[in-house]
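The records we work with from here on pair a chain with its fold. Taken together, the tokens spell out the fold as the letters spell out the chain. The record below shows the convention in full.
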Amino acid sequence: MTALGIALLVTGVVLIVLEAHVPSLGVLGIPGVVSIAAGAVVGVSALGGSIVFGVLLALMLVAISGTVVAVSLREGLAVRRRRIRSGPEGLIGHIGIVRSWDQSSGKVLVDGALWSARRSLGLDDEDDVLELHAGDQIVVERLNGLTLAVRPAEEWELAP
């Protein structure tokens, strides 16, 4: 019986440590807390202690390990809400400069890299205000493979 209690305690600790390192959102941590509680009760009763002491020890361990799991859950959920800041998807909303442009496509410089670009859908090609020239500033709206969909930057987007 003592071996079962120790096995439950070790299993619970391993599951909680895994929860802290793997974004499982409680799938590993909650069974770890239950395992620690059961291990404490089984271990204390196997060693000849009273069931009341086992339950009190289990409650104390559940409070400590539950706090660790709660912090892990909070941090895991916060990471999911963060905006993507790297990779191709991180380019959306960034300001760039037109290097060359021919009617509806061309090359733009965004974050130090030269990209193929095309005009975003929904923009009227006949409107002179929306015509792009070398040196104009643009905003990346979408990414399709290695081609950016861009539109002219507005004044409020360029303000520091």
In short: The chain has two domains: 2-81, 88-158. The CA atoms of residues 40 and 58 lie 5 Å apart. The longest strand covers residues 95-102.
